[in-house]
Amino acid sequence: VRTVAVPLGQRSYRIKIAPNLVARLGEECRRLKLGPRCAVLSDTHVARRFAKSALTSLKRAGFEPFLITVPAGEKSKSLVTVQHCHDKLAAHRLERGSFIVALGGGVVGDLAGFVAATHLRGIAYVQVPTTLLAQVDSSVGGKTGVNLKAGKNLVGAFHQPCLVLCDLDTLMMLPEREYRSGLAEVIKYGIIRDATLFRQLERNLPGILARDPKVLGPIIARCCAIKAKIVGRDEREGGLRAVLNFGHTIGHALETVSGYGRYLHGEAISIGQVAAVRLSEAALGFPAAQAQRTTELFQRAGLPVAAQLNLAARRSLFNAMQQDKKVRGGRVRFVLARRIGSALPGQEVADSLIHRVLEAILSRKP
Ligand SMILES: NC(=O)c1ccc[n+]([C@@H]2O[C@H](COP(=O)([O-])OP(=O)(O)OC[C@H]3O[C@@H](n4cnc5c(N)ncnc54)[C@H](O)[C@@H]3O)[C@@H](O)[C@H]2O)c1
Ligand SMILES: [Zn+2]
Fold first, then answer.
1. What pLDDT was estimated at residue 272?
2. Which of 5, 50, 240, 325 is deepest in the core (most CB within 10 A)?
3. CA–CA distance from 298 to each of 248, 304, 335, 362 (Å)?
């Protein structure tokens, strides 16, 4: 078992990465000295595969768990579902010492975390992320929340989990497209913070695509350690945490203008990162040979590196970018990189350069 510590004073916790952790959920929770009653929150796809094992393990360790299942998909990140969960928790008389287990991908994690943050003004929760994206990104850092009609993640809270269990076996069941989408975030960590990780990804890509736990274990642990370190120094997004948004300004805008559903998040930020590297070449002297390597790695991972949008669509993408939350004082700030392994947030870029890069990347056949 690999363990990564998230250093947040009183709110510190551990991330454990290993095969077969769902079956050990009960014993892991017993060490946390929590009350006996707990809810396992999951979605239909994940519950079908893993809920039984999670519940059995909790019972064997002396807990009294019950299961709440929500429909799979982003739609479940809603206030209606939040209310539904609160009602269930109240009906089962959860108490202050009770806890919630989030068993699923980022949707379940964000939802369960927010329910935990608000039930009885805050109870404990344990993350058991079952997608690659959730294991390396959403389960770490304490951002929880749900969507409104007006936009994604507009209602939320910072609420840190008390434990994160990344079970490598769960990834074997993940649909191929979801898995590759998660790899876009993995590659991101290499680009923003760790040239060694990046080389490791280049070298071990076949093992990664085969989801070999021996190859994946150290890589997922490294990604979690990078995020943990950044979150540990900037729990509430003061500035540093923004480097995690590398490729996301253009990626989010692409998700918005193409309608959610056209691209998975990881696919959109793959294109967004290729664009950010192009901007970095022009603005910060990112080496051309390294730019080539990043594009190739995304391609080898089966991720898109270009899109074909007409002029009108590119214009609305540019406008969507201006709406991005990272806009400060009317100007879009980008996270850019000086080279593989070193990214800087808060970079201003001339509009003419942005247009040039958007045209280069978003007007050709992918
Ligand atoms: N809190 C954060 O810091 C943070 C960071 C990044 C993303 N997010 C959020 O995460 C969400 C996306 O997360 P996601 O990509 O994990 O999506 P998801 O939770 O919707 O999971 C993707 C799909 O895979 C299924 N699935 C999950 N695990 C499986 C498994 N082991 N085997 C088979 N199928 C499985 C799910 O049922 C779903 O259909 C978004 O809502 C996003 O806003 C949050
Ligand atoms: Zn992301």
1. 98
2. 50
3. 15, 7, 18, 16
Tell me the one-letter amino acid at 232. Answer: G
Residue 181 contacts residue 264 (beta carbons within 8 Å): yes
Instruction: Return the amino acid letter for 165.
Output: L
Question: 137 CA distance to ligand 1 centroid (A)?
Answer: 10
Q: How many angstroms is it from 266 CA to the middle of ligand 2?
A: 7
Say yes or no: CB of residue 53 within 6 Å of ligand 1.
no
Q: How far apart are CA 249 and CA 323, in angstroms?
A: 10
* Token pair listed for 272: 């967004």
Identify which of 216, 227, 100, 210 has the alpha carbon closest to the alpha carbon of residue 162: 100
Residue owning the nearest CA to atom 11 of ligand 1: 106
The interaxial angle of helices 311-323 and 248-257, nearest 10 deg, is 120
Q: Report the alpha-carbon distance of residue 357 to residue 274 in Å, rounded.
A: 10
Q: Is 178 in the pocket of ligand 1 (CB under 6 A)?
A: yes
For ligand 1, the distance from its centroid to the CA atom of residue 176, given in whole angstroms, is 13
Instruction: State pLDDT tens for residues 63-73.
Output: 999 999 999 99
Quick one: how far is CA 196 from the chain centroid? 21
Residue 255 Cβ < 6 Å to ligand 1:
no
Q: Where are the alpha helices (H) located in the chain, listed in sequence order? A: 25-30, 44-60, 79-91, 106-118, 132-133, 176-193, 195-209, 213-233, 248-257, 265-284, 288-300, 311-323, 351-362
User: Does 159 sit in the ligand 1 pocket, CB within 6 Å?
Assistant: no
C-beta separation of 246 from 276 below 8 A = yes
Residue of the nearest CA to atom 34 in ligand 1? 174
Question: Could you read off the pLDDT of 235-247 as tens digits, one per residue?
Answer: 777 788 999 999 9
Ligand having the closest approach to the CA of 78: 1
What value does the mean pLDDT of the chain take? 95
Distance 269 CA to ligand 2 centre (A): 7
pTM over 0.90: yes
Which residue has the least CA distance to atom 22 on ligand 1?
A: 105
